[in-house]
Design goal:
The protein is 39% helix and 17% strand. The protein is an alpha/beta fold and 706 residues long.
Amino acid sequence: MRWSELRQIQVETIFAVKDGTEHLIISAETASGKTEAAFLPILSEIIGRREGGIGALYVGPLKALINDQFRRLEDLCEASEIPVFKWHGDVGSAQKKRFLSEPSGVLLITPESIESLFINHSSEVHLLFRSLPFIVIDEIHAFIGAERGMHLKSLIARIAQISAVRPRIIGLSATLGDLPTTQRWLSPGEPESVRIIAGQGGEKEISFLIKGYLFDTVSYDDGDDDPTLIKLSEDVIKHFYGKNSLIFINSRSKLELYTDQVKRSLEEARLPNLFRIHHGSLSRVEREETETALKSGRPTATFCSSTLELGIDVGDVSRIGQIGVPWSVHSLCQRLGRSGRREGTPSVMIMFVPESQKAEMDLVDRLSPSLLRALALSNLMLRRWCEPPETSLLHYSTLIQQILSVITERGGAGAVTLYNVLVERGAFSWVTQSEFTGILRSMSESDLIEQDPEGLLILGLKGERLVHRMDFYACFPTEPEMKVLWKSKQIGSIAPTYGIETLEYLILAGRRWEVLSVDLDRKEVLVQPSHGGKVPYFAGGGTVDIHPVVHQTVRDLLLSDTVPAYLDTPGKALLASARSVARSTGVAEFDLVPVPNGTYWFPWAGSAVLRTLMILGSCWGGFDVQERGIALFFHGASPDRVLNFYTDILATCPSKTEIAQKYGDLIREKYDSYVPEALLVKGFAERYIETRVVPPRTVAPSGECH
């Protein structure tokens, strides 16, 4: 590998693994050698291993990341003759069978494939994990606070119950917003026993630019004359053409639109198309071709979703683009860190933020909210603040999946055994006996499980159907899809929306297609190249909750006179206009701002508080209230009425569960429909409701608003 020396983080990790027994978290910037830091001492430990079974388990969030790390570990393990295997949905059955016949060395796997091992190879899991000394979790931040994280923790607890030794867990991450919280997630009972090894590298140079745009309307239509699409596409070509780069967009539909528009613009200019596309609805072949192109050394600019946000090696990326605003500081840090991986090269990002200015604009739109949020996220990133992970969320849905899994693995299990495996010795230690009994009762009533005369719990008819579905291994919901095929080659997939059988054209993989036929039974769409195109509907996505610190930073920006150096001239004009509006209306100084048709409340709080206030206002106060991103709008209500109501209601505020009960749809996770209603309300309340709220206190003079 031609290394002349080890980095400090690698030296420190080697001694920590060799001399200690505690769990570890290695936190360092991208391309700092975290994988080698973890595996150099691990491989040294397992070279002389005499026990059977796996010597180290590597868990990654993406198949592409596993493929990438597999190649790196093969090089590391070649000299020591330690076998390395990978296991996920794209690995052939012959390779898996060969591994199961003689399990040893290092296994790279996703949580879903670990689940598959418990379900489909239950007789072999004891041989696989009988003396497992190490579990490495890559991109650990991607699991914390999510269903997949709860799922992974449960699987690790079940593995630990099999292993004759206590597996040491080593978590790897480039961005962790709160290291103590991560320690608690990894070891709730003894967080102080988790050792942190943080990189001590020098300050990374950052080259950062936000470009603001003002349009009459901001739309992303399929039409060829959409000014937003055309102008931003032209600027993307200007800044990214001929450069190895990634351009992130939050929506798969917009990814397809921009890739198509750039392609047509380049055709008009008679320039070769050096742009590609990468997202989760494209086929594996399409994604891998893009990854190969990025690593080829040839300039390849790629429109991408979060599929390339994690640590997949895509070569020397010179700069990052972002169209629209990322959901979080965490995501912004991850994306920026994909560039400048080589020593001595800066991380470069250009963010394109369009705003609209219609004739009839409401107060929030006049504040350029997208630009303000982009600036807030950027300021927080530069201050090295990141959203702390949520570790106390109640994932009852995942518990239901794990109950079905354990029953399937064992062919049946008693209630006491299930409680022991999943709660007392497992990851769901916060579940009470009465809650667990209620969940089993609800599952029985839904025919997921049934009890035989001896008290053994087995799968019911509905449970059998669920477990034998291919999507059972994932604890998160997966949407049904239809394959899009050209000459029997899969291009990608789209959602089977209403009226899809009348679809004539579509845009997919950045190319235009004519639809030849739609087979609803086979879930296939046959296409051929065409000049016509329409972006299809892609399932999933949606927004995420905004942390209160982000909205508080937006307010600070409105009150400040400082102009960020990384903002371009049009962006500076938009910021100046937003500050002028804020001063004239009293938005930044006053809580309540009256307008002719109602009242705005700017609590400068996070999404959970805004949601709580909206439910209280509509269900207890009878208001016609809407959430407007950074504010609430009370249609037809005076400031005094809003002030008096919330002053009274927040003095004796209903409980979180009482508020959650008023919310319409509480289903958020895959098996929530089988969770007892009381627990469903409890789980929703803990995650989405916040009652620590200060009522409004000040009202802007009505004469200043227009």
